[in-house]
Amino acid sequence: MSNPLLERLQPxxxxxxxxxxxxxxxxxxxxxVNLSIxxxxxxxxxxxxDALKAAMGGLAVYxxxxxxxxxxxxxxxxxxxxxxxxxxxxxxxxxxxxxxEALFSFxxxxxxxxxxxxxxxxxxxxxxxxxxxxxxxxxxPHYLPLEADGQCDYAKVPDNIWQRTxxxxxxxxxxxxxxxxxxxxxxxxxxxxxxxxFAIASDECYSEIYLDEASxxxxxxxxxxxxxxxxxxxxxxxxxxxxxxxxxxxxxxxxAGDAALLKQFLKYRTYHGxxxxxxxxxxxxxxxxxxAHVIENxxxxxxxxxxxTPILQKRFEVxxxxxxxxxxxxxxxxxxVFCRQALQQLNVTLLPGSFLARDVDGFNPGAGHVRIALVxxxxxxxxxxxxxxxxxx
Length: 393
Ligand SMILES: Cc1ncc(COP(=O)(O)O)c(C=O)c1O
Known about the structure:
The protein is α/β, with parallel strands linked by helices and 393 residues long. The protein folds into two domains: 4-43 and 293-388, Aspartate Aminotransferase, domain 1, CATH 3.90.1150.10; 46-290, Aspartate Aminotransferase, domain 2 (3-Layer(aba) Sandwich). The protein is built from 14 helices and twelve strands. The protein has helices at residues 13-20, 46-54, 69-83, 99-110, 129-136, 159-164, 183-196, 220-226, 241-244, 259-272, 278-289, 292-313, 335-346, 378-388; strands spanning 33-34, 93-96, 119-124, 140-145, 165-171, 199-203, 235-240, 253-257, 326-330, 348-349, 351-352, 369-373. The strands form three sheets. It has a seven-stranded mixed beta sheet, with helices on both faces. Helix 2 packs antiparallel against helix 11, helix 3 (69-83) runs parallel beside helix 11 (278-289) and helix 4 (99-110) runs parallel beside helix 5 (129-136).
């Protein structure tokens, strides 16, 4: 007998992709370009790998879940440089093994499994971990469709939904649209959280991949400060080195914000066993303390968007995102048909937008779009775009 809540988990988008492509023979005359998975592919910077190699002695000790003070200081320093926000490294920062596990486990801290009417707000389309976290916490996900600007409109949430909300996941910059939540929208969320007492989990793992060097995306804690909040009550941000420093295999990120929530989270994490290896902590310190490699990384993505977007715009409706490494492109036919044809005719692998969203009242807000991850080298991304505009539909 296993936990019955496990039955409520949905197949992951990539499982559905395999099923969608079953029986398709990709065009063997062309090498495959895979733009379906959001896995960074630029090289991991030496500043990180050198620090990791130098710290191998650290493997001989059990690390503490709280991490070493130097890591929390480096993270607090980065938060200050990047956001102008002051967080207390003793009480308002915790290391995480990437943002994914923390986004998941945080729900288990704030949800009361006995409260069957609890709702967890999630954007739709969304990163599937939010849904799994809600379901395994015994709550019900409540999906908010992305609007034309690529973000949720929290002004549309009715009071009867707010009343039942225990946790709201925000994804900003968003996956898949790259849109950044505005101060005005944050204000609506903060006001609702004050009124109804729910926690806000702000997934900011794409915060460092932005296209206009002069305007880094707004983060939840800066929005809180701008809203005149002296503490970060009920707000926790989730950040990561995976995208910022091209290190998805390092499994390093952090959470920051409300000290009371993080105290509970630390307790949970101690039992859960999510302490970060000391070697990984040392590599993470080096990475958070260095911004040069991040600027270089952004340049590479900006080049790809500059080259690829105008090619695709010759035929399709697609705009440059504010941030992230995805193009969210409208498809002239059903997105699943488009992806099958792209593979069969052009040997280009894409992800249908409908796989990233749930149907609500018969409407899937991801349908009619494909997500194109510009993670492959520039020349491969350009080749894929040139092939795509020749697709026969
Ligand atoms: C929106 C979003 N959040 C979180 C993650 C998790 O990233 P990591 O656990 O590597 O920090 C991803 C990974 O693709 C993502 O797309």
